[in-house]
């Protein structure tokens, strides 16, 4: 077997899979509650700013940074949108 395959198998065995699965479960349940505090337009804006940044804060303008900070504060603030349920407007 090629050496790189053995190295990959060894690396995969070192991953703390229980922690990875716990993080996935948390994101799917609790994380969704946080995310739903934003309106669909605000969620789209966060996504667009994240893509624009490409993981680097320097790729955002100061106005973009300020907007992202405001949106993240809204995410962290308890009760800011939970009353509306899924974050969507009623039909």
Strand tally: 0
Structural class: mainly alpha
What sort of overall outline do the alpha carbons produce when their principal axes are compared?
A: flat
Q: Helix fraction?
A: 55-70%
Write a brief structural summary.
The longest helix has 19 residues, at 17-35. The protein has a domain at 39-81. The chain is mainly alpha-helical and 91 residues long.
Explained architecture:
The chain is mainly α and 91 residues long. The chain has a domain of 43 residues. It contains 4 helices and no strands. It is flat. The C terminus is likely disordered.
Using brief descriptors, characterize the structure shown:
flat, 4 helices, mainly alpha, 66% helix, single chain, 91 residues
Topology of helices and strands:
Elements: H1 3-14, H2 17-35, H3 40-53, H4 62-76
């Amino acid at each position: 077997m090629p050496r790189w395959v053995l190295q990959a198998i060894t690396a995969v065995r070192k991953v703390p899979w229980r922690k990875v699965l716990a993080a996935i479960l948390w994101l799917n349940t609790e994380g969704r509650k946080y995310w739903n505090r934003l309106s669909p337009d605000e969620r789209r804006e966060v996504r667009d700013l994240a893509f624009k940044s490409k993981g680097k804060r320097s790729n955002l303008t100061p106005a973009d940074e300020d907007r992202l900070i405001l949106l993240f504060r809204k995410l962290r603030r308890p009760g800011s949108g939970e009353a509306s349920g899924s974050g969507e407007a009623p039909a």
